[in-house]
Amino acid sequence: MIRHMTTKDCVHVQHIARKTWNATYQDIIPEEIQKQFIDRFYSHAMMEKRMEKTNVLIAEMQGLPIGFASFTRKDEDGDSELTAMYILPEYQQAGYGEKLFKSTLTMLQDAQQLFVYVDARNAIGRAFYEKQGFELLDVFEEDFQGLPVLTAQYVYYIQTPVLV
Question: Please, are residues 22 and 31 in contact by the beta-carbon 8 Å criterion?
Fold first, then answer.
């Protein structure tokens, strides 16, 4: 089941983010940097702000949150950004990511395009986005919590762009 996040879900989202990050980035991003990032961006205050400023969907299995996605509202250009999508490792490859993605698209049906940024070394994440139909736009270096990383920028065309 896919539903909107409530404040009661904060502790579950924090757990999902921490466990997924640890599994995904264990050989890519040092554990201390992961911890700093999760502690900062998934604090209770930041989660409440995220629910206020973005859309956050929860994937549930038998009443237990096992994944989530957050995305911005459509801006004046018709663009949105998928800011996070995490599924607990033991539930990956079970269709929950695709369900979250389809629910996101339903909520953004009047948008033009959806962007996502993912660490270029995150092969599982990149394969998922490519399977859903995202197109790679760019790979660039940036600073992540003091660590240089390569980031892959993808776009999913919700509405076919009109060429003028």
Answer: yes
2-157 has which fold?
Answer: Aminopeptidase (3.40.630)
- Is residue 151 within 8 A of residue 117, CB to CB? The reply is yes
SS3 content of the chain, % helix, strand, coil (to 5): 40, 35, 25
Running DSSP on this structure, what letter comes out for residue 91?
Answer: G
Residue among 73, 71, 74 nearest 82 (CA): 71
Per-residue pLDDT of the chain (164 residues; tens, 9 = 90+): 999 999 999 999 999 999 999 999 998 999 999 999 999 999 989 998 999 999 999 999 999 999 999 999 999 999 999 999 999 999 998 999 999 999 999 999 889 999 999 999 999 999 999 999 999 999 999 998 888 999 999 999 997 655 65
CA 21, 5, 1, 69 torsion: positive or negative?
negative
d(CA 41, CA 45): 9
Q: Which two tokens stand for residue 78?
A: 């018709």
